From TrEMBL:
PANTHER family: BACTERIAL SURFACE ANTIGEN (D15) DOMAIN-CONTAINING PROTEIN, SORTING AND ASSEMBLY MACHINERY SAMM50 PROTEIN FAMILY MEMBER. GO terms for cellular component: outer membrane. InterPro entries: Bac_surfAg_D15, BamA/TamA_POTRA, D15-like. Coiled coil: none annotated. It is found in: Membrane. It comes from Rhizobium rhizoryzae. Residues 314-614 form the Bacterial surface antigen (D15) domain. Keywords: Membrane, Transmembrane, Transmembrane beta strand. Residues 215-275 form the POTRA domain. This is Translocation and assembly module TamA. The keyword Phosphoprotein does not apply.
Length: 614
């Protein structure tokens, strides 16, 4: 153990700026400090090229910081020259000349151990002559790359011949060859010859692809809590299918989405196994299996809501999850505790049930709902199987038992309903949190039997949402959603449980109206609920900067007692929202006005939550 005394701090620098103290005090930390001054002559460089060169030169940007010794200054100058030349080549300036002198001497003519006059900062002059911009001339792809169109990899004669585009072309060639199932594909040579008489560059790239190979033995390393056989099976890489970079990416994404790993890396072997297959290694690190948390939401109409949950992501060692949650909402809208909404549930999920494409889900939920139009207490047990038809398509089916006691326009009633829900989903969005293109489609059917009345009915619902990004970096995204539903079967509306009839209004449908306010009403102005509905939502999601966006929106909807909407009562709402980007999705705040509100109905609505509205 060594004991020493602490010296007082004389200077403090943050982001390269002295907040107190001086450069002389900082120089004391450098061995044999040598100060210098830099003159940057860029001759004919203009615009973006000039800006890039000025930013790249460390001699210029660091000239207030001393270097260690005279040789240290020479080394810094040579590194600066290499950086400047690299930028010039990226800009297709292959005839460029970069000269650097120190104390009037070319750096390549200095003696091995230079000595400079330190009576004043050592003068350094950097001169850059960019020369003309070169274009791509003849492009030749050889070897196993011979059959590839040069233009398909970004090498079109006549275009700017920047070094980065040439390097990227080689990467695209390798990627294209690997897509053919050839994991050992690599670049053999990359020759770039500049013709200074014509200001063109001739490029020759050769590649070797190796044989087509299947995935081979899959080794799993790193996890202590998750069963290795499950990881191997769930990755779907153990089926000896033909090698595919896309399948490797999907396998990694699939394992990450389980939520049980803090990191997932899939490594390919450098050589094929004796049987001609490619061995793989899946390296994972376990995350935290147990978790808990809470959330909050707010609506000026419906009040505030708070929720809490506890969960386990790896209950039995194969990423089975168990979640217990509870929620109270309607806080602040009234002081009567009986009018608050309450819910509690326990949810179990088992991915890879029997086969990797199958997921088993089961839940038991209890709920009390008290919107203005009815009161309902419900207990629901649900079990479903979800099967992945493809990367975009899923189909779900199962069984549900629901008991409810409600009070609405038809008085107090009890219902016990057995249902067989079926749902299809296609998700072709480019991003689930912030989609900028693509669409999402859902279609569901729920045939049901209500035992107390012996009524048989079925509900059918569908929804499609689409996204279109506009402008540079999709700074504006147009988003739209159209939803519709109908209930067929019994002719008596009262035979359909209150919670199964359709009501609209609120943050999830037509904003500006009270939750479930949009409904057909009887002569006594009591909400009946409907057999059919149609809702359309339009948004323009405009980014102000990388963090903040504004969203003007328009919602319209109708609910009817007929099995098809008659559009006799159309309700519209419009408003504007603010979005703040976070790693877990945008924070959302919307303000909406009902454009044709009900007599005595809500005058405006404020909604807050996490994630886009759809």
């Amino acid at each position: 153990m060594t004991v020493g005394s602490a010296e007082p701090a004389h200077a403090f620098k943050l982001f390269g700026i002295n907040l107190f103290g001086s450069d002389e005090e900082e120089a004391a930390d450098v061995i044999d400090p040598v100060r210098y001054s830099t003159t940057l002559n860029l001759t004919t460089a203009t615009g973006d090229l000039k800006d890039r060169l000025e930013t790249t030169s460390a001699l210029k940007s660091d000239e207030k910081q001393p270097v260690s010794g005279d040789l240290g200054l020479v080394i810094k100058a040579r590194e600066d020259r290499d950086r400047l030349v690299a930028v010039l080549y990226e800009e297709a300036r292959y005839g460029a000349v970069v000269r650097i002198t120190i104390a009037g001497q070319e750096i390549d003519r200095l003696p091995p151990v230079p000595v400079f006059d330190h009576s004043q900062p050592v003068p350094v002059v950097v001169t850059v002559e960019p020369g003309p911009e070169f274009a791509l001339g003849k492009v030749t792809l050889e070897g196993d790359a011979a059959g590839i169109d040069p233009e398909s990899v970004g090498l079109e004669p006549g275009n700017k011949a920047g070094s980065v585009s040439i390097i990227q072309a080689g990467e695209r060639i390798v990627r294209d060859l690997k897509k053919q199932g050839r994991p050992l594909s690599k670049i053999g040579k990359r020759d770039v010859i500049a013709d200074h008489a014509t200001n063109t560059v001739a490029v020759t790239i050769s590649a070797t692809s190796g044989p087509v190979a299947p995935f081979g033995t899959v080794t799993v390393r790193g996890s202590e809590g998750v069963d290795q056989d499950f990881i191997r099976r769930y990755s779907r890489l153990d089926r000896r299918e033909t090698y595919s970079p896309e399948q490797l990416k999907k396998a990694g994404d699939r394992l990450r989405e389980l939520g049980v790993f803090s990191s997932v890396t899939i490594r390919e072997a450098d050589a094929l196994a004796p049987d001609g297959s490619l061995p793989l290694s899946i390296e994972v690190a376990d995350g935290k299996f147990r978790y808990f948390g809470f959330g909050a939401e707010f609506s000026s109409i419906d009040g505030a809501g708070v929720s809490g949950y506890w969960g386990h992501r790896n209950l039995f060692g194969q990423a089975e999850s168990l979640r217990i949650e509870g929620q109270v909402s309607g806080i602040g809208a009234t002081t009567d505790l009986n009018t608050f909404d309450y819910s509690a549930g326990i949810i179990y999920s088992e991915p890879g049930f029997k086969i990797p494409e199958m997921t088993f889900d089961a839940s038991l939920r209890a709920k009390r709902e008290t919107p203005d139009v009815y009161t309902a207490n419900t207990i629901t047990a649900l079990a479903t199987l979800t099967y992945e038809l493809s990367e975009q398509d899923k189909v779900k089916g199962g069984g549900e038992i629901a008991w409810s006691e409600s009070e609405d326009a038809f008085g107090r009633n009890r219902y016990l309903t057995f249902s067989l829900p079926i749902e299809f989903e296609r998700d072709a969005r480019d991003n689930k949190l912030e989609p900028t293109e693509g669409y999402r489609l859902t279609a569901s059917a729920k045939p049901s039997y209500e035992t107390y009345r012996g009524s048989i009915f079925s509900s059918f619902e569908g929804s499609i949402s689409g996204y279109l990004g506009l402008g540079e970096e999709n700074r504006v995204v147009l988003a739209g959603r159209l939803s519709a539903g109908t209930i067929v079967g019994t002719d008596n509306l009262q035979d359909i449980p209150t919670i199964r009839r359709f009501y609209m209004g609120g943050g999830g449908s037509v904003r500006g109206y009270t939750f479930r306010e949009i409904s057909p009403y009887d002569a006594q102005n009591r909400a009946l609920g409907g057999r059919s509905y149609t809702v359309a939502n339009l948004e323009a999601r405009v980014k102000i900067n990388d963090k903040i966006g504004i969203v003007p929106f328009f919602d319209v909807g109708t609910v009817s007692t007929e099995i098809a909407p008659d559009f006799s009562d159309i309700r519209m709402g419009a408003g504007i929202g603010v979005r703040y980007a976070t790693p877990f999705g945008p924070l959302r705040l919307d303000i909406a006005l009902p454009l044709n509100r009900y007599p005595g109905g809500s005058q405006y609505g404020i909604y807050a939550g996490i994630g886009q509205s759809f």
